[in-house]
Amino acid sequence: MQIPNKSYLNHNTNISSSNMGEMPTPALVLPVILRPILAQLERRDVGAAQSLRSSILKTEQNNPGFCYDFIMAIVRRAELNVNLNECVLRLQGNLPETDLNEYRLTRTEEPFQELNRKSVALKVILSRIPDEIQDRKTFLETIKEIASAIKKLLDVVNEIGNFIPGVTGKQAVEQRKKEFVKYSKKFSTTLKEYFKEGQPNAVFISALYLIRQTNQIMLTVKSKCE
């Protein structure tokens, strides 16, 4: 894929504080970019890595978007011509198993383990979009895979509803499912617009929304069932 120029970077990658909470990329910078780096650092110096991890997590919690701003500052300082939306989407497919624990369910019943598999499968397929979007035939096949993966994930979420105790827990998971469906429909609309206008960045962002919503489903199920 052709590397975007600086004007493309400034127009599509910078996210103002007014819509920081609405965009998916800032929420994914920590788990997709920084957490794997911290894991590598931990192999060299456990104490330093844990201290840095704690500081970053606390700062991000108190100032949402800090990690995104930090990475963007590095990008600007290095004068790199990159689209961070595209980068985060690509990297999502390369995360090692150890970096996925935050979104992994530990219950041993088959529906929970199946949800682990289906959520990872969907995110991996979505991460292939930057490499395949320019090849129309390949991309159309990928879209079919994404649609199938979305359906399979929703089927498992429906099945897990039987394991969730209490009305409040069931409602929380149901709400996450509705949000996921909403962004799935937006993804479909974005694809139609892409084939008319040929702007891939909108597809990258829409795919990141789906990844974020998938993560939210996993976190909600985890909090209500474990």
Topology:
Blueprint: H1 6-12, H2 25-44, H3 46-62, H4 66-77, H5 84-92, H6 110-127, H7 129-132, H8 136-160, H9 167-197, H10 200-225
Domain Programmed cell death protein 10 dimerisation: 25-81
GO biological process, one term: regulation of Golgi organization
Organism: Musca domestica
Describe the protein in words.
InterPro entries: PDCD10, PDCD10_Homolog, PDCD10_N. The structure is a single chain. Helices cover 75% and strands 0% of the residues. It is mainly α. The protein has two domains: 25-78, Lyase 2-enoyl-coa Hydratase, Chain  A, domain 2 (Orthogonal Bundle), CATH 1.10.12; 106-224, Four Helix Bundle (Hemerythrin (Met), subunit A) (Up-down Bundle), CATH 1.20.120.
What's the end-to-end separation, in Å? 42 Å
**Count of separate DSSP helical elements:** 10
Order of helices and strands: HHHHHHHHHH
Work out the count of structural domains.
Answer: 2
Strand content: under 5%
Structural class: mainly alpha
* Number of E-type strands: 0
Shape-level CATH architecture of the largest domain: Up-down Bundle
Give the rounded overall mean pLDDT. 88
- CATH topology term of the largest domain: Four Helix Bundle (Hemerythrin (Met), subunit A)
* Largest sheet composition: none
Low-confidence parts, pLDDT < 50 over ≥5 residues? 1-21
Radius of gyration, in angstroms, nearest whole number: 18 Å
The coarse silhouette is globular
Report the helical percentage: over 70%
GO cellular component, one term: FAR/SIN/STRIPAK complex
Keywords: Cell membrane, Cytoplasm, Membrane
Membrane topology: Peripheral membrane protein
Protein name: Programmed cell death protein 10
